[in-house]
Please model this.
Amino acid sequence: MKIAICDDDLQHCGKLETFILDICKEVNTDVDVDVYTSGEEMLDKNGDDCESPDIAFLDIEMKGFNGIETARKLRETDRHMLIIYITSYTQYTMESFEVSPFRYLLKPIDKKSIEKVLIEAMNEIFKNHESLFLKLGNRQIQIYCDDIITVNSECGRMVRLNTQKVLPSQLFYAKIKDIEKQLSPLDFVKVNQGTIVNLKYAYIVSSDEIQMTTGQSISISRGRKKHVKELFALYVKRAKNI
Model:
């Protein structure tokens, strides 16, 4: 995932970058963060031949090109980027709505407010990856991620899917590491070397196992205990909209 920060206050940029990196590490999401100190610099480095950021944090009040002008230029080549405005003012001009901003954040920022909006933005992005496509012989099988309960590695070359709905087969030729990349890191977690679970179906997470609503008990490897518990706690917070 690519994230851009554009703000002419270097201290604010550093603080925001630290929050973003910490949050993405907590949810096991790989991220590249690019920092720009002016709208002109961001536009110059994000031309037609460059991969646009998935999320952009833009300060509205900047010298030269302000956040609104910068967003307007970005929208000429990218209609999908999620733009999050950061401002010191509670009143937003009508101009700012032209570029369909995703959220507004008020300064001074804190980690809790950044976490909330960043998780919401990531959820929005992962909505575009609601299905898993696996090959079965000559057929392509579409599986809705929401229906997946667990993914288990078998013999290193195959995966077994345990799902809510009946599949033509539960065994597919694929590697678990490739499946993991296609699943939302906010909803799925690898609990041991060969098992991924959908947190939607998690019932209790203890120090050494995760109990599923289906009655399964799955062991958590020692090195993953802390991460699994943290991600489950975050999932519960999101489910309760805390």
In short: The radius of gyration is 20 Å. The mean pLDDT is 89. The CA atoms of residues 180 and 234 lie 19 Å apart. The first strand starts at residue 2 and ends at 6.
